[in-house]
């Protein structure tokens, strides 16, 4: 592995590619290239450690090791058997294989993963008379097998567990928002920690915690206990510790307020537990409050939220979204507000024209991330006056 010029593929969610690319550039990635749900770049070993530790919108960070064409299972096995796996793992380490297959020739992902496992094990047995074991739950080394028709690509996963697993979530609601999606939404909304932040339907607190981490410039994985790259044969612990130290020195004090409302006591309790786990009790305030009966008391203010659209809402969706719009207009002048919704028809009942619409996915649900600008008086008058919403 050329540790000075690593080819790196970083996975993210649809709609967050530009946000991730900007993060990668700021962290020092070279030759940044935007793909579908991914960003490719180049960097050295230190950069690889840095993006694993700091990137907020990365899901997986992988290094392609081997690419070849296979027309049948025998060639597939032979090419993998010939590869020097002992350059990347020891015989006493465990490994696991994730698969993604788009091929008419090789249709069964479990079968192809088994063939790859056999090739790796047989290669070690031939060289060392011993074999590494598979551990699907907590492997030392994680490989990814990608087959697109005849093209086979094998990559090594530098993080291990997906990077949305920040380490602070102790409790979750019925439909919690993914941490990476939350961080991406906040960056799309322009949150940089200047001013104040409100999530008026905060659930278990993910948007609040991610907002606080951005505001304080805390690295995304500050609570993570381990990365897969720490098990690699070329792991440089001194380099990784130095990168963490430099990164922690950048953490700053946040002087604004981050506030969450919710009506559900169970959700508020979950939010308290998660905020405590993230050591953010002094930064984030959550309280039982009906958003529809609230008034703006933070200036300037950015609002971002994920309205609940499940059985906990006893009112009709039309009525619910109309109330959102009424509350925006009546109680939150000079405010920039964003929310995400999968119910595009119901979202029209807000009664305000969104100034931006961004297509995102919350799990498998196609959503729109909608921006609303509330002006006190008419938009035209405020533009002429040079006033912009807080």
UniProtKB/TrEMBL annotation:
One of its GO terms (molecular function) is RNA binding. SUPFAM superfamilies: S-adenosyl-L-methionine-dependent methyltransferases. InterPro entries: RlmKL-like_Mtase, RlmKL-like_Mtase_CS, RlmL_1st, SAM-dependent_MTases_sf, THUMP_dom. SMART domains: THUMP. It comes from the Bacteria. It holds the Pfam family THUMP. Keywords: Methyltransferase, RNA-binding, Transferase. Residues 47-158 form the THUMP domain. PANTHER family: RIBOSOMAL RNA LARGE SUBUNIT METHYLTRANSFERASE K/L (PTHR47313), RIBOSOMAL RNA LARGE SUBUNIT METHYLTRANSFERASE K_L (PTHR47313:SF1). This is Class I SAM-dependent RNA methyltransferase.
